[in-house]
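Thread: Newbie trying to understand structure tokens

Hi all, I'm a second-year student working on a class project, and my supervisor (Dr. K.) asked me to get a predicted structure for one chain before our next meeting. I've only ever worked with sequences, so writing a 3D structure as a token string is new to me. If someone could post the tokens and maybe explain what I'm looking at, I'd be very grateful. Here's the chain:
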Amino acid sequence: MLTHGNWMTALDTERDALRLRPVDVYLGIYPMGHVGLSWDLAIIRAGGTYVMMERFDLERYLALAWEHKATVLAGMPPVFHALN
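---
Reply by user tm_fold:
Sure, no problem. This is what the structure looks like when written as tokens:
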């Protein structure tokens, strides 16, 4: 069973592992039923800003990163390959 304490500990661990700070802006593209939910909440818990994309589109991803001055970008191999 996941408790409130389990969630808070997990979010604090992710915040620390990712070295998230209040000045960070995270551009999230992961599904909310996956790691996206916890990483999104971890940036919020760190006091940073979360920018959400409904679905990945390279041009929109780059535009949002630029517009919001993202310091942390979510990505997986297809995203990184698209950046080439």
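A couple of things are worth pointing out once you decode it. The mean pLDDT is 90. Residues 4-82 form a domain with the Rossmann fold fold (CATH 3.40.50.980). Feel free to ask follow-ups in this thread.
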